[in-house]
Amino acid sequence: MRILLTNDDGVQSAGLKALAEALLDIAELVIVAPERQQSAAGHAITLHKPLRMNPAQIEGLDIQPYDTNGTPADCVILGILATGTPPDLVISGINAGANLGEEILYSGTVSAAMEAVLQELPAFAISVTEYDCPKFEAAAQFARQLVEDWQYVDLCDGGFLNINVPSLPPDEIKGIEVTRLGKRAYVNEVTRREDPRGQPYYWFSGEAQELDGGEGTDIGVVAAGRISITPVHFNLTNYDGISRLEPLVERLSG
């Protein structure tokens, strides 16, 4: 199996290295990752500047990775079109920090997996729940197991998997559960500061509030120490809203 690995934390991230080391002996790996941190880049693609893809090096890893000045979604397109044979599978991660609930709309990690689906390739995104001192071993082991059993993964058209793994040692993981997206909101703050020349700049920050972290949600499952697997579809149509809008359309067409 030929697998394209990417992420949004950059080519030198420890999570990407852990993922590659876990898969190196069971798959042919191609690595295309951003040259720098691209967290919260979302699904942006680059249209108005040249994209570069340069040979890089990951210390201790006997494989030739590439870095690019593009976004995570760019990495997938480059990995498919500019590296020879297209991959059989795209994996994005291992991200330092969870991607739960609405966070998947901002996540470069998740957007890379979604771009793979748009390119008609199977994919999954994988993250650990800790940002500052993440433990990647359990996530790397799980990614390997999933690849080995990939023939049993049944994805609907346009779908991919978003996986979140508690930042725990493997022997402390309490199980695996298929989940739905929970709901969390951020209380955002914008701080105005001035640079040494007196010009203003702004810094975003915020605290997460769990609005739905109950049974069956990705938020609740990882909080309980289990691995969350959420099937995600890029079709954002609100099908209930179609029938609800029909009276308005009739009125406007009257």
Please provide a written account of the structure.
With 254 residues, the protein is an alpha/beta fold. It contains six helices and eleven strands. The protein has one domain: Survival protein SurE-like phosphatase/nucleotidase (Stationary-phase Survival Protein Sure Homolog, Chain: A, 3-Layer(aba) Sandwich), CATH 3.40.1210.10. Strands 3-4-2-1-5-6-7-11-8 form a nine-stranded mixed β-sheet, sandwiched between helices. Strands 9-10 form a two-stranded antiparallel sheet. Helix 1 packs parallel to helix 4 and helix 2 packs parallel to helix 3.
Number of strands: 11
Number of helices: 6
Distance linking N and C termini: 58 Å
In what range is the share of β-strand residues?
A: 25-35%
Looking at the structure, the CATH topology is: Stationary-phase Survival Protein Sure Homolog, Chain: A
Spatial arrangement of strands, main beta sheet = 3-4-2-1-5-6-7-11-8
Alpha-carbon Rg, integer: 20 Å
CATH architectural designation: 3-Layer(aba) Sandwich
Class inferred from helices and paired strands? alpha/beta
**Shape assignment:** globular
Mean pLDDT over the full residue set = 92
What is the total number of structural domains?
1
| Low-pLDDT runs | none
Outline the biggest β-sheet: 9 strands, mixed
Annotated CATH homologous superfamily: Survival protein SurE-like phosphatase/nucleotidase
Helix proportion range: 25-40%
Question: What's the CATH class label?
Answer: Alpha Beta
- How do the SSEs run, as a string of H and E? EHEEEHEHEHEEEEHEH
